[in-house]
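Something for you to look into today, if you have time. Could you write out one complete protein record for me, on any chain you like? The space below this message is yours for that.
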Amino acid sequence: MTVPPGRRERKKAATRQKIADTALRLFLERGYDAVGIRDVAAEADVAVTTLFSHFASKEALVFEQDDDFEQRLTQAVTDRAPDEPLIPALRREIQSLVRHCTADGATPIWRMIDESPALREYEESMRLRHAESLAKAIAADPDLSQTTTASRTIARFVIDAYSLAREAPDPDAALDEIFRMIEAAWAVTCPSGHSIGTAGQ
């Protein structure tokens, strides 16, 4: 029997989501440190090897949208309209990610992360990886004409904007303030006459 195109991928995605949802529920119910990989696999009714085929570590179960977030950030650079300035495109994506991560129900998850040294360390390494991927996308864009150092600096600023806004009482106001500073930093690196747009767009 021939498997229809995409069916296997859909099944894999459904299994992955089931594992992640199960893990998060157990972590919140029992505490992150009290739940092991075998507990998650048993509750999700999958083999431990299947779990590890989707997630490289226990910490990765908490940040199951890690790869999606990284892809969205790089695509904000690569997929923006030809005449769209970089910083407003990045601000729009960061704002979307912040709203996702501050939605109702997210507070217990972030509390769990803040209380776990292992999860805090994983989040930090994840942020650095996202910043490097974003920096490479910026540096590779011929229309931006940025050095590696400038690209990495702006990328770090943008990733930090996400964390700072997520923790702020008013995330949107925080993003407005932060991106005005990022816009100013970007203006310093831009060739004379290069259109940079405005952070409030």
